[in-house]
């Protein structure tokens, strides 16, 4: 299946919310990706980051977006509002994950890199509020622009039922994606930071 050349597919969300997983799923489903492989797999993302370095300069350079039509590109949610709203059509998959799991995953990444911060309840409470407010602002911003369609995809829901969530994503694109391949691309062993409410989940993941 080839995505229509009339729009750009964007996978977005907070860091550590499953954006790389979704990029892998889209690739398996038949959507070409726009990446440069400059950031190599590591212990935090052993299956790859699926990033494009020039995305970080989105506020200054948008010429590359012409090459993104008909493809999927990963853009963190903080940069979405820098996309030109009058030049392209966009379909956004907004990855959402329990904020406590995002914070835990980010803390583990910092620890592996030797930049561990001393976590305090107040710090996490402030970050949780900041992230929740940011995501709501992103949703409102997306709803406010006619050339953006978006679908929220829950990280834990993908792991609980990858086939069902792959079907949702395929329907969002008008059908035709390879749903079994998308579902098979989900590596449940990489669901490594779970909130306490999910400790008894029968997912069989670490």
Radius of gyration, taken over Cα atoms and rounded to an integer in Å: 17 Å
CATH class placement: Alpha Beta
Main structural class: alpha/beta
Report low-confidence residues grouped into runs of 5 or more: 197-206
How many structural units, i.e. domains? 1
Biggest sheet strand line-up: 2-1-3-4
Distance from N terminus to C terminus (CA atoms, Å) equals: 33 Å
From the 3D coordinates, which CATH architecture would you assign?
3-Layer(aba) Sandwich
User: How many helical elements?
Assistant: 6
Structural summary, described in words:
With 206 residues, the chain is α/β, with parallel strands linked by helices. It has a single domain (7-198), classed as Rossmann fold. 34% of the residues lie in helices and 12% in strands. It contains six helices and four strands. The protein has helices at residues 19-29, 99-112, 121-143, 155-160, 162-172, 179-184; strands at 7-13, 72-74, 89-96, 148-154. A four-stranded parallel β-sheet has the order 2-1-3-4, sandwiched between helices. Helix 1 links the parallel strand 1 (7-13) and strand 2 (72-74). The longest helix is centred in the middle third of the chain and has 23 residues, at 121-143. It is globular, with a radius of gyration of 17 Å. The two termini are 33 Å apart. The relative contact order is 0.20. The model is unreliable at 197-206 (pLDDT under 50).
